[in-house]
Amino acid sequence: DAGVIQSPRHEVTEMGQEVTLRCKPISGHNSLFWYRQTMMRGLELLIYFNNNVPIDDSGMPEDRFSAKMPNASFSTLKIQPSEPRDSAVYFCASRPDSQNTGELFFGEGSRLTVL
Amino acid sequence: AQSVTQPDIHITVSEGASLELRCNYSYGATPYLFWYVQSPGQGLQLLLKYFSGDTLVQGIKGFEAEFKRSQSSFNLRKPSVHWSDAAEYFCAVGTPYSSASKIIFGSGTRLSIRP
Q1: Residues B7-19: what's their mean pLDDT?
Q2: Residue from the list A33, A35, A103 with its beta carbon closest to the beta carbon of B46
């Protein structure tokens, strides 16, 4: 299995630009999570989906952030417009409902730098 | 809502010494509990998990953790650390499984190994 695939691995952009992060979950996994990691705030849960439906987006910091999951094999996290304080590593993780133990499988992350 | 606390930000131990990383959780019932490890520039990898049964659980790389309900704790231990164990360690808590359950992470403990 290829694991959770995230792209891009690194993104450097200027303040005000739109940023789109992408995630391909493990095939057959029903739940998908987006986390943000910073030194100051640690790992924050932004949003998660189950069967492509957003279940809890209470962690999305503000309206500049949006996430979609148009099908079972693809999700995006968009920031528009981006700000320097959005600089972080963004992780995507997926989980199979069938295992009933809650384990998450993480991608390698997308490191975002907003100048 | 569930929460998890890792009181130690950074720990340094000598190679070959024993290790204990602390984790305390808050949840009204017995949660699912996890320890993940993150090497620099990598995603998170599951070390071990507890969701029922024996309160002492064994994981990969020689790690173990003990669930103590009376203390709301799930401390991670290893009898003898190796230089390759230097990494960031995260404790996480999840609600007993349903499609709506989410995983919340602690702030992490960075482990350094003294030669």
Answers
A1: 96
A2: A103
